[in-house]
Design a protein that fits this description.
mainly alpha, 2 helices
Length: 51
Amino acid sequence: MIILGIILLVVGFIFSIPILWTLGIIAAVIGVVLALLGALGRPVAGRAHYF
């Protein structure tokens, strides 16, 4: 999800599409939060890893 967020950020920036920029930020933040929770060993919604 982090990679998807970064791709959306880049595409939104290059083509000046604000919705892609916003979705990229949201996807990247959610991906980082899930990665941190998984690294700490805290399962989220019954899953310890999201990949």
